[in-house]
From TrEMBL:
Keywords: Carboxypeptidase, Cell shape, Cell wall biogenesis/degradation, Glycosyltransferase, Hydrolase, Multifunctional enzyme, Peptidoglycan synthesis, Protease, Transferase. Residues 376-391 have a biased composition (Polar residues). PANTHER family: BINDING PROTEIN TRANSPEPTIDASE, PUTATIVE-RELATED, PENICILLIN-BINDING PROTEIN 1A. The lineage of its organism: Bacteria, Bacillati, Actinomycetota, Actinomycetes, Kitasatosporales. It comes from Streptomyces malaysiense. This is Penicillin-binding protein. InterPro entries: Beta-lactam/transpept-like (IPR012338), Glyco_trans_51 (IPR001264), Glycosyltr_51/Transpeptidase (IPR050396), Lysozyme-like_dom_sf (IPR023346), PBP_transglycosylase (IPR036950), PCN-bd_Tpept (IPR001460).
């Protein structure tokens, strides 16, 4: 009877086993187990950041080959020393654990590594009979379908080590700032000890538990010796490796967040990865950012700008923001980027935002377009660096049928007859507005697009004012455009990524890079020759501190809300912008008085930052000269063109009141710091702070005769009168920056947009 009962019991157990084995299948992985962080790396392979914001999980999956043997052995010594020789389950260990738990000797799992992996990857952490039963059967099936190496690899990638680190790779970074492949026996043993009690054994967070953690660490090392994975001589005298302080809160601080977000945007915009893929995580993204150049950029901004701010005593200094981007003109790779003082303090990236006018940094695109298109002046003279234009202040442009436009020069100065080179040195608005008409504003716009400025850039409109830079391209966009000039007119879309892998092995294909001749070499090189003059004796002499041949152009936005320098050497094209923004309202703010200076000039801090950065970034690179092929006749003098000889006298800046245009409305504020208006078919030219079509305040006198002087006072929104022939029209390119609406002018026909100066 007893024997029969026993046999029945055994048969019942066997039957239950086979029923359970047949009913329980290996399920898909749980959602948490597959989520990973994305890791962003500098070009040299060192880490920029681990981004867990998409996946909400700090994990980076690695192959077993990417985990040091010491780390593998340490985990086995801690959790399952007979893993490679035992079955998926260990009944004796399970019974022993149950007995010890029941008799008060401590809670023990008794689970093999295979069972723990099944719990981590396929099931969950709940303590229920159903979950334990599923774990039992899945482990047996898994042991038949996967190799021991595959199971150990999965276990190492799914185990939790504390500090929000899932997997051995994330743990190695979180505790020791190194890769899993570089873990030595001492550090590996500590990480293995953490699996048993991740939070309690973190000796930094819980120093009171250090003795228990060290005891567990010793247990692991002794196990490694016992199994022959570590020699006794190595073990003897081994010191406990204190982990580093936890730094989770600073993962995106400094420049890291700016760089990561810029790269993410690049990946999505170029259809390399989409947001869902990034959310799933597991990508290891090697960027083009060079660590030494990145550090040099940050130091230059700190030295030349941030360290000089006095936010406590000078309110304007609290408005100061900066953005910068640096591109290798030969490869199109973005090698450095400055987004702001700290991503966690100033979220908006100063290098990629597109809401500040570029000012006179746009003027070189006008000249390049003139050469590219073989353009001539209104009287038929070919446009070259020596072509003479009438630089009279408020001179109405000739040959434009869209309404009168008479931009002011900085400080309302008149120059009379002046060569294009000199007009570039001094950023004479009257000359460049006329040149834009001579070339054709639509052609100028197309040239800018060909050079690298996005076609959908706000306020990039085909009007004469396009020459003065009302467009709000980003610093990165402008760096791409200037890199094309530096590369003799050859344009390749910038790139920020060198390589992408997923799960340690799968390499993601990157788009093929193509280079096109955006403008002729002579157009680009002749523009470069002129921009060299700006550095040698124009508004950007501070760029000479770079200590090597350089070309560039300064610029300032309306009302001095931003100051720019865009420049390049044969090896590096870099654009820097200093911008004004209220830290509370985010409204664009004038920078008059910032750093204790009357105005923020493009030739001041932006050029100084550029010079220090370029000097340091290229300090180990031999200085090279520009190899230029100029347009035919570029070095030949030309006779003066038609103009008003009496206009050669220079008018002092700061005069109040503009010249009245045919539509009956005064012309706008000075250039190089103030927008020069929104001309319309009815003849309205608004700008600065004109109210109701009445008085316009003139330019502010500053120390630099070739940087933008802005309008003083008032509201940047300007309302013009109604011109002849129809109702009001809103200026297409005349949006005033600073967070205010666009300038509105009167008259029929298309508005011609605002423009800015140097």
């Amino acid at each position: 009877m007893v024997l029969g009962s026993f046999v029945f019991f055994v048969l019942a157990i066997v039957a239950l086993f086979f029923v359970g084995y047949s009913l329980v299948n290996i399920p898909p992985a749980n959602a948490l187990a597959t989520k990973q962080a994305n890791v962003y790396l500098y070009a040299d392979g060192s880490q920029i950041a681990r981004d867990t914001r998409d996946s909400q999980v700090n994990r980076e999956k690695v192959t077993l080959a990417e985990v040091s043997k010491d780390a593998q052995h340490a985990v086995l010594a801690a959790e399952d020393r007979d893993f490679y020789t035992e079955s998926a389950i260990d009944p004796k260990a399970m019974l022993r654990a149950a007995w010890n738990t029941a008799t008060g000797k401590g809670k023990q799992s008794g689970s093999t590594i295979t069972q723990q992996y099944v719990k981590n990857y396929y099931l969950g952490q709940e303590q229920t009979v159903t979950r334990k039963a599923k774990e039992f059967f899945i482990s047996i099936k898994l042991d038949r379908n996967k190799s021991k190496d595959e199971i150990l690899e999965g276990y190492l990638n799914t185990s939790y080590f504390g500090r929000n680190a899932y997997g051995i790779q994330a743990a190695a970074q979180a505790y020791y700032g190194r890769e899993a492949k570089d873990l030595d026996p001492a550090r590996a043993a500590y990480l293995a000890a953490l699996v048993n009690a991740p939070s309690e054994y973190d000796v930094v967070a819980h120093p009171e538990n250090k003795s228990a953690a060290v005891a567990r660490w010793n247990y692991v090392l002794d196990g490694m010796v016992k199994k022959g994975w570590l020699s006794q001589s190595q073990r003897t005298g081994m010191k406990f490796p204190m982990p580093k302080e936890q730094t989770l809160s600073t993962g995106m601080s400094g420049q890291r967040g700016y760089l990561v977000d810029a790269v993410k945007h690049y990946l999505i915009a170029h259809h390399i990865l989409d947001s869902d893929q990034l959310e799933a995580g597991g990508y290891r993204i090697t960027t083009t950012i060079q660590r030494n150049k990145q550090n040099a950029f940050v130091k230059a901004v700190n030295d030349q700008l941030v360290s000089k701010l006095d936010k406590k005593n000078n309110k304007v200094d609290s408005y100061v923001r900066a953005g910068g981007a640096s591109v290798d003109p030969k490869t199109g790779q973005v090698v450095a980027m400055y987004g702001g003082i700290d991503y966690v303090k100033q979220y908006t990236n100063g290098a990629t935002r597109g809401d500040f006018q570029v000012g006179s940094t746009f003027k070189p695109f006008v000249f390049a377009s003139a050469v590219q298109n073989g353009s001539t002046t209104q009287d038929g003279r070919r446009i070259t660096p020596n072509t003479q234009y009438d630089g009279t202040n408020e001179r109405p442009v000739q040959g434009w049928n869209g309404g009168s436009y008479a931009p002011q020069n900085e400080d309302q100065r008149s120059y009379g007859q002046i060569t294009v080179t000199k007009a570039t040195d001094l950023s004479v608005n009257a000359v460049y507005a006329q040149m834009a008409v001579d070339v054709g504003p639509a052609k100028v716009k197309q040239t800018a697009i060909d050079l690298g400025i996005p076609s959908d850039t706000p306020d990039l409109q085909p009007y004469p004012s396009i020459a003065l830079g009302p467009a709000t391209a980003s610093v990165l966009d402008m760096a791409e455009g200037y890199a094309t000039l530096a590369n003799h007119g050859r344009h390749g879309t910038y790139t920020m990524v060198k390589k992408i892998t997923r799960n340690g092995t799968d390499e993601i294909k990157l788009p093929d890079t193509s280079v096109e001749q955006a403008v002729s070499r002579s157009a680009a090189d002749t523009t470069t020759a002129m921009l060299k003059s700006v550095v040698q004796g124009g508004t950007a002499t501070a760029a000479q501190a770079a200590g090597r041949p350089a070309a560039g152009k300064t610029g300032t936005a309306e009302n001095d809300t931003a100051a720019w320098f865009a420049g390049y050497t044969p090896d590096l094209a870099t654009v820097v912008s200093v911008m004004g923004q209220d830290p509370v309202t985010a409204k664009h703010m004038s920078l008059y008085g910032a750093l204790g200076q009357p105005r923020m000039n493009g030739g001041g801090p932006p050029t100084q930052i550029w010079a220090q950065y370029t000097h340091d970034a290229l300090k180990n690179t031999p200085a090279s000269s520009f190899d230029l092929q100029l347009q035919e006749g570029a070095d030949q003098p030309q006779p003066p063109g038609p103009g008003d000889p009496s206009a050669s006298a220079t008018t002092d800046g700061g005069t109040t009141g503009g010249a009245t245009q045919p539509g009956g409305t005064p012309s706008g504020t000075p250039t190089d710091g103030g927008t020069t208006g929104t001309p319309t078919d009815g003849g309205t030219t608004t700008g600065g702070d004109t109210t109701g079509g009445g008085t316009t305040t003139g330019g502010t006198t500053g120390p630099d005769p070739a940087t933008v002087g802005g309008a003083t006072g008032g509201d940047p929104t300007t309302t013009g009168g109604t011109g002849a022939g129809g109702g009001p029209a809103t200026g297409g390119g005349g949006a005033a920056t600073g967070g205010d609406p666009a300038t509105t002018g009167g008259g029929a026909g298309a508005a011609t947009g605002g423009g800015t100066g140097t």
